[in-house]
Write a sequence for this structure.
């Protein structure tokens, strides 16, 4: 084997520990509270936090070691086997880790951002569990978070579609568990914020996508007889089979992507997923899990390259999602909802990029987006926490020792008016009150808006550049440019509304900065958001040109069979998009910054746009549309099936009338005429006959010996008479 | 020599008397005697035919019958004594408690 000479060197044998470390962490945090309880001690928050963060941090260390080893091995992919998993006849799926530049990139993003978010959660969840009045959930949160890291690692490192699918479903489970983390809270809400409802919605929307992924796997296995990447990819290039088969594989895979990566038409679960705690939104629903679809397309690059037409489809889905979600984000008031739709939109950018075959650009945007969107979510969590803290002034004294005290506050607050700490209309003027959060938020905003020289500028520019060369359709480029304008606009709107102007609520006035465990990840991510773009420096001078692209090309060149070409930096595209972004920010300043919103004032955009803004605010009624087109008919169908078919037809008619009644009739017939009338009568006859004859015959038993003797004599005479006379 | 017919006739008479005695009498002793009478009627026939055919086996059989009869009398008398001890009578109609 070509690779065997390098497998012996480096740290590749350590790669299973990227899964084992988080798994050990979650097992410790699951069972230690029980063990300590048995020992009459407490497995307190510090222990939980140290275990959780360490488990994730060690996974990061292992990922970095993989990176170093892979660099030393010049990017030659490594396959590290751990165990035989499935072995059914010729169907053989070993548990193998695939270490190549693509998977290591994902590992670094997942464990790097993941560890920062673990660290952030230490502080954030400390307060969150107390605001929710359930401090016991602290350990549960870290268990889920570790489980997520383990599953995500399985997803990105698997060497077959089935291992990828294990991780794919595993992260889906974690997403479900964490969206519904406060599943007992907010039980009266009827809208999509109801936590368990949101969790179910995410799970079910993902099931639809998973159906596509499964179909893609079935077809792959049916045709190729294997699910292993190393075996499929070389064969795809010179494929000779039924026409359109690969197209169906890619098409079904696209359905899976739309589920996991929240693209049209399955994106609706992601905005509702913000019901989960904010670190979850940052880690799972912005930085890592939702990019799994992008990773899947990038990983399956040979499959997507092998067919015509599918590129245009994927790119159009991505671009349309990017534009559509960006328009919705403009009309939202919930600070996290804006970011959620922004995430959908940015995922659209990535999907469009990998759809166009610009895998490097897509992955590049994936990485930078992981930095700045995680940053934005975490910072928004810090904002929410600050406002929440302003709303609960007594809370400041509440540290770990006063847990009993806090639940008391919660009862007390139940009498207050309903206050939404995530509503941007309740904020304003937070710039001076929470400066650290503000400055990090600004870094994330500028990165997302694509302002030079922040990370988002480089990656988004690369996607736009590829889109401008895309031969499939010009719509992709147009959609993405307009989406980029909207992106800059809604981020500007958000920043003006949240941080500038005067506070519109006493909670915003009283807002206090978050603790250092919350702020350190923000600062680290802010630095990454500023500098992250330089890793794929597009110029020949200065830094190493296209370092990230060449790094990933070790994988893509092998899997797609041709070297990637890296387009020259196009000042036309870059300047155009920068000018448009700056113009959009200025536009948002004109509306929201120049004359800040007063408390109770309607959104100035609502006046300017009227019904269009209403549509943006109502998410273009897509949820209602799905409700009307899919859910209501589906519920009606379910009701019809359950009530009419199952209950009325099967139960009432078929089972009760058909089977039960006829059976009763048959049983009655067998019981009454047959059993009682015939069989019983026979035995009665027998019994009565025996009784009667017995009674009659017993009279013969007179007890007088001479009678018996007479009988004997008579018999003897009769027999002798017969013998003598008649024979 | 007396013809065989006479023996047969006498035997038949004796047997009939014995049988009627068994069937009609209630005294256990008398019944016993009647049984002996019937046995001896049989013995008479054995001897008579043995003489007629000049075969010894018939006469030997009579000895066996007499032996069995003697044993029977011994058992029978013992039974009668036992019945008498419990019932103070040997009327066999009194010994009818096993009737149905």
């Amino acid at each position: 084997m070509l690779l065997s000479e390098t497998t012996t060197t480096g740290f590749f044998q350590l790669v299973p520990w990227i899964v084992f470390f988080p798994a050990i962490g979650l097992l410790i945090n699951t069972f230690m509270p029980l063990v300590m309880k048995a020992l009459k001690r407490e497995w307190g928050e510090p222990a939980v936090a140290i275990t959780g963060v360490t488990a994730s941090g060690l996974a990061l260390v292992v990922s970095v070691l993989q990176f170093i080893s892979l660099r030393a091995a010049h990017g030659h992919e490594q396959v590290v086997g751990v165990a035989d998993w499935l072995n059914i006849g010729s169907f053989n799926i070993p548990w193998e880790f695939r270490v190549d530049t693509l998977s290591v990139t994902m590992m670094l993003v997942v464990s790097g951002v993941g560890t920062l978010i673990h660290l952030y959660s230490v502080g954030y969840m400390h307060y969150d569990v107390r605001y929710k009045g359930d401090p016991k959930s602290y350990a549960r949160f870290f268990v889920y978070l570790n489980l997520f890291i383990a599953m995500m690692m399985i997803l990105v490192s698997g060497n077959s579609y089935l291992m990828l699918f294990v991780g794919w479903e595993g992260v889906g489970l974690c997403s479900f568990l964490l969206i519904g983390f406060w599943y007992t809270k907010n039980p009266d809400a009827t809208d999509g914020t109801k936590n368990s409802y949101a969790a179910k919605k995410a799970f079910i929307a993902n099931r639809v996508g998973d159906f596509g992924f499964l179909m893609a796997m079935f077809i792959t296995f049916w045709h190729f007889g294997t699910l292993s990447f190393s075996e499929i990819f070389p064969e795809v290039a010179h494929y000779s089979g039924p026409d359109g088969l690969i197209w169906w594989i890619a098409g079904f895979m696209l359905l899976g992507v739309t589920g996991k990566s929240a693209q049209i038409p399955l994106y609706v679960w992601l905005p509702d997923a913000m019901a989960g705690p904010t670190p979850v939104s940052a880690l799972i629903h912005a930085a890592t899990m939702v990019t799994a679809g992008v990773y899947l397309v990038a990983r399956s690059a040979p499959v997507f390259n092998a067919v015509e037409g599918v590129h245009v489809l994927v790119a159009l889905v991505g671009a349309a999602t990017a534009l559509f979600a960006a328009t919705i984000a403009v009309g939202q008031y919930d600070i996290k909802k804006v970011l959620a739709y922004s995430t959908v939109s940015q995922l659209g950018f990535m999907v469009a990029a990998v759809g166009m075959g610009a895998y490097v650009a897509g992955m590049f945007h994936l990485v930078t987006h992981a930095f700045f969107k995680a940053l934005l979510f975490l910072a928004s969590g810090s904002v929410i926490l600050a406002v929440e803290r302003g709303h609960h002034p007594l809370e400041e004294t509440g540290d770990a020792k006063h847990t009993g005290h806090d639940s008391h506050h919660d009862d007390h607050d139940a009498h207050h008016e309903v206050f939404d700490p995530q509503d941007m209309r309740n904020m304003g003027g937070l710039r001076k009150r929470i400066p650290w959060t503000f400055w990090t938020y600004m870094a994330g905003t500028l990165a997302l808006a694509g302002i030079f020289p922040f990370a988002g500028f480089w990656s988004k520019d690369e996607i736009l550049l590829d889109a401008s060369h895309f031969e499939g359709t010009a719509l992709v480029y147009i959609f993405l440019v307009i989406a980029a304008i909207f992106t800059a606009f809604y981020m500007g709107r958000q920043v003006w509304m949240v941080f500038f102007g005067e506070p519109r609520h006493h909670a915003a006035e009283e807002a206090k900065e978050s603790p250092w465990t919350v702020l350190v990840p923000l600062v680290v991510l802010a630095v990454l958001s500023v500098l992250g773009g330089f890793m794929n420096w597009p110029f020949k001078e200065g830094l190493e040109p296209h370092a990230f692209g060449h790094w990933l090309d070790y994988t893509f060149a092998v899997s797609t069979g041709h070297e990637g070409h890296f387009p020259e930096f196009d000042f036309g595209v870059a300047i155009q998009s920068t000018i448009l972004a700056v113009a959009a920010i200025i536009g948002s300043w004109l509306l929201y910054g120049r004359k800040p919103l007063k408390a109770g004032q309607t959104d100035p955009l609502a006046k300017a746009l009227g019904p269009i803004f209403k549509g943006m605010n109502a998410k273009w009624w897509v949820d209602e549309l799905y409700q009307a087109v899919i859910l209501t008919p589906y519920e009606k169908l379910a009701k019809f099936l359950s009530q009419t078919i199952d209950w009325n037809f099967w139960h009432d008619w078929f089972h009760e009338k058909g089977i039960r009644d006829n059976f009763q009739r048959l049983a009655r017939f067998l019981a009454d005429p047959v059993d009682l009338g015939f069989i019983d009568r026979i035995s009665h006859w027998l019994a009565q006959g025996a009784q009667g004859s017995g009674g009659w015959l017993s009279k013969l038993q007179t007890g007088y010996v001479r009678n018996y003797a007479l009988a004997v004599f008579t018999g003897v005479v009769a027999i002798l008479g017969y013998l003598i006379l008649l024979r | 020599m007396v013809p065989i017919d006479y023996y047969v006739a006498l035997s038949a008479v004796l047997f009939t008397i014995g049988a009627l005695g068994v069937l009609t009498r209630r005294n256990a002793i008398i019944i016993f005697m009647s049984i002996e009478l019937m046995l001896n009627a049989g013995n008479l026939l054995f001897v008579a035919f043995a003489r007629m055919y000049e075969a010894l086996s018939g006469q030997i059989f009579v000895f066996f019958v007499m032996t069995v009869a003697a044993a029977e009398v011994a058992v029978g008398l013992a039974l009668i004594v036992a019945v008498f001890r419990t019932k103070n009578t040997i009327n066999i109609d009194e010994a009818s408690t096993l009737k149905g």
Summary: The radius of gyration of chain A is 37 Å. Chain A touches chain B through 13 residues (CB under 8 Å). The first helix of chain A runs from residue 4 to 7.
